[in-house]
Amino acid sequence: MPAQIDLHSHSTISDGLLTPTALVQHAARQGVRMLALTDHDDVSGLAEARACAAEHDMQFIHGVEISVTWKHRTLHIVGLRIDPEFPALVKGLATIRAGRHKRAEGMAAGLEQVGISGSLEGAYAYANQGIISRTHFARFLVEKGHAKDMRAVFKKYLVKGKPGYVEHQWANLDDALSWIIDSGGVAVIAHPGRYDLGRTNMLLLMEEFRHLGGAAIEVVTGSHTPQQYLEFAKVARQFDLAASMGSDYHGPEHSYMDMGRLPDLPHGCVPVWKDWPELELLGAQAEAQAKVG
Question: What pTM was estimated for this model as a whole?
């Protein structure tokens, strides 16, 4: 069952390469039976993805990935089973998207200073009328030959201390969690292994997150190593948090791991989907298919 569940993915609404429809179709081909679309700071692809999921008898979870600033660091909080029309959530995400445009202008100015022109227009061409992100700048820079691949271009131009990096204040943790929880959703810390927090700050983050109503962390995710699966399973147990899993799929050749390839959660984890009605529906579908077979 776990390989059939993917609770973190991206479409062209944010920085993915596939439209919401194409993303769901790919997930179906990969054997995913429960999918969450979690675009960055935007929920406008959910209706399209849900309609396609229904055609494939797939359980679809409304999701979003919210950009957060915590102790001068950027974190991502995934909201699962949210109400995408909840007013506070809609307003908060709109504010973040406006901030993304301002940051993009600053990134383009920094790249201009080192002789790279046209990056704002180039990045927006990749954004395809969706939100603008560092990933879109990276794709433009690779296309123009400024680095050999996405990993290299981030390291050379888009991280702290490099010409295309802009310090930015995203939503605060308290606000992000309140938007998710008040909309009826479940708050999850995305890919904790990617944050350079150190042990003390990681524990402080977990404490604060739990205190504010956070419910889960991603234990199995595309960018985690097998050792990190075990490490964050232990953190989840320590802070009485459920475990989530998701590929963080962005598209062919732009992802850590393809959909339908996630391993099981480590032993002792409590799955975030444990009591969801969608899980019961999956079981009923499997039982019906077995009888037909």
Answer: 0.90
